[in-house]
Specification:
With 163 residues, the chain is of the alpha/beta class. The protein has helices at 10-28, 42-57, 100-109, and strands spanning 5-8, 33-39, 61-71, 74-78, 88-96, 116-124, 136-140, 149-153, 158-162. The protein is built from three helices and nine strands. Strands 4-3-2-5-6-7 form a six-stranded mixed beta sheet. Strands 1-9-8 form a three-stranded antiparallel beta sheet.
Length: 163
């Protein structure tokens, strides 16, 4: 049985999210609004936490959306993006391994006439098979292809494991 090793504890995850949120505030403080889209489950949970930090520290309007897998490589965004939400978009996920999920999420977002798109990743494994640049990253972690990263985000526990 493989051993789980904690790579980020709850406080470290909170610190990474705070740092990302403050970086967004710093760069987008003059904007009236931003849109944050999180991949269903952990990406959305991280997006919500980023939204709350920004909301508590700045007056920018934030629209929060969820992107989820409908079927093979087909994603949907809810609620539907409206024209006024397309200027500054942030796409959030927990772990970037190959970049495939992010690239299909971007494909869905690009169905709209967006102004600006940035990516936010809690843990970047540096195994990109797709040309994905990460704009905001919590932790860059070089792993082997056999390693697995598990991020657990519940009300009781926020941890990232290397398995």
């Amino acid at each position: 049985m493989k051993r789980k090793q904690i790579i980020l504890n709850s406080q470290e995850i909170k610190n990474k999210i705070n740092r990302i949120a403050y970086s967004i505030i710093e760069e987008y403080h003059a904007e009236k609004s931003i849109t944050i889209i999180g991949f269903e489950k952990n990406g959305y949970t991280i997006a919500d936490k980023i939204k709350n930090v920004i909301k508590d520290n700045h007056s920018i309007k934030i629209d929060l959306h969820k992107i989820k897998l409908e079927n093979k490589n087909k994603f949907s965004i809810s609620p539907i993006l409206e024209k006024h939400q397309l200027k500054n978009i942030f796409l959030v996920d927990d772990v970037l391994k190959s970049g495939k999920t992010i690239i299909y999420g971007i494909k869905e977002i690009l169905k709209h006439d967006i102004g600006n798109l940035k990516t936010i990743i809690l843990i970047n494994r540096n195994h990109n098979q797709f040309p994905i640049g990460v704009d905001y990253v919590g932790l860059n972690l070089s792993t082997t292809l056999k390693d697995h990263i598990e991020v657990v985000m519940t009300e009781k526990e926020n941890l990232a494991y290397l398995i």
